[in-house]
């Protein structure tokens, strides 16, 4: 997987992970992959819902020691 | 993408926690690319007040109202557990620990995300609030301004 941009959203609480993700995805091109790293437990369902409704693709989600990593392909 | 969706929130309450909920939803909706408007009416107007000593010309009653109402987002009381001001101090401490954004930051974030902050002019008159006492770069309107946005809103909330 080719990661174009990484967003560090660790330690941020709702609604910041999604607000920052939206800003970051605006800065990449269609088809490119944004990596988002977050620690907010709500981010898991938030990111999934957000990518679905805003036309992007959630390629993969990883969870390790309370740190979530998401790979979002811009639609 | 399809036509831009709209989220409209009426903030009637002047409680810190309720206003926080309103602004979190607003910022979230903006991240969903919604066109977001928050209509501030009655006590919700206090969230928009500047925390400054301003002396606009006012009647006696208006001055009294101005003194009795909280000045700005960070001075709003809690809807529960106010405990003469201890409650807000405690919750802000906990918020810091959990990295939750305080209300004034949520409002700046909303403005940064181009959320329309609208103040109801009729209730401003009732409460004696003047434009110079409220935050810069906000809009002013009445019920028609809300209906115009609300009639095709995907989300409409009254908080």
Provide a count of the helices of chain B. Answer: 6
**How do the strands line up in the largest sheet of chain B?**
4-3-2-1-5
Q: Per CATH, which architecture of chain B?
A: 3-Layer(aba) Sandwich
* Mean pLDDT over all positions of chain A: 95
Would you state the CATH class of chain B?
Alpha Beta
Strand percentage of chain A, roughly? 35-45%
Order the strands across the largest sheet of chain A as they lie in space: 1-2-4-3
Structural commentary:
The complex is a heterodimer of chains A (75) and B (159). Chain A has 75 residues and is α+β, with helices and mostly antiparallel strands. Helix content of chain A is 28%, strand content 37%. Chain A has helices at residues 16-25, 43-53; strands spanning 3-9, 33-38, 57-64, 67-73. Chain A is globular. Chain B is α/β, with parallel strands linked by helices. In chain B, 39% of the residues lie in helices and 15% in strands. Chain B is built from 6 helices and 5 strands; from the N terminus they run βαβαααβαβαβ. The radius of gyration of chain B is 16 Å and the shape is globular. The chains are: A alpha+beta (75), B alpha/beta (159). Chain A binds chain B through residues 11-16, 18-19, 21-22, 50, 53-55, and chain B through 1, 24-25, 27-28, 30-33, 98-101, 109, 113. Chain A: Pfam families: TusA. Chain A: Belongs to the sulfur carrier protein TusA family.
Short note summarizing the structure:
Chain B: This is NADH dehydrogenase. Helix content of chain A is 28%, strand content 37%.
Write the layout of secondary structure elements.
The complex is a heterodimer of chains A (75) and B (159).
Chain A: E1 3-9, H1 16-25, E2 33-38, H2 43-53, E3 57-64, E4 67-73
Parallel strand pairs in A: 1-2
Antiparallel strand pairs in A: 2-4, 3-4
Chain B: E1 6-11, H1 16-31, E2 35-40, H2 60-68, H3 86-97, H4 103-112, E3 116-120, H5 121-127, E4 139-141, H6 143-150, E5 155-158
Parallel strand pairs in B: 1-2, 1-5, 2-3, 3-4
């Amino acid at each position: 997987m080719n990661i174009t941009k990484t967003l560090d959203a660790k330690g941020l609480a709702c609604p910041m992970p999604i607000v920052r993700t939206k800003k970051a995805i605006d800065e990449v091109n269609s088809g490119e992959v944004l990596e988002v790293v977050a620690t907010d437990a709500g981010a898991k369902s938030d990111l999934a819902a957000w990518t679905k409704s805003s036309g992007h693709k959630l390629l993969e989600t990883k969870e390790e020691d309370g740190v979530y990593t998401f790979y979002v392909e811009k639609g | 993408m399809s036509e831009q969706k709209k989220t409209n929130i009426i903030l009637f309450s002047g409680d810190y926690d309720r206003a926080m909920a309103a602004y979190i939803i607003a910022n979230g909706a903006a991240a969903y690319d919604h066109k977001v408007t928050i209509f501030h009416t009655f006590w919700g107007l206090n969230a928009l007040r500047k925390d400054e000593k301003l002396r606009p010309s006012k009647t006696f009653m208006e001055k009294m109202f101005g003194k009795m109402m909280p000045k700005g987002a960070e001075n709003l009381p809690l809807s529960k557990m106010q405990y003469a001001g201890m409650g807000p101090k405690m919750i802000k401490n906990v918020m810091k620990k959990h990295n939750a954004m305080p209300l004034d930051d949520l409002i700046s974030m909303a403005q940064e995300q181009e959320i329309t902050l609208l103040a109801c002019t009729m209730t401003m008159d009732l409460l004696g609030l003047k434009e110079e006492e409220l935050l810069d770069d906000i809009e002013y309107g009445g019920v028609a301004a809300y209906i115009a946005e609300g009639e095709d809103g995907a989300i409409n909330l009254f908080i």
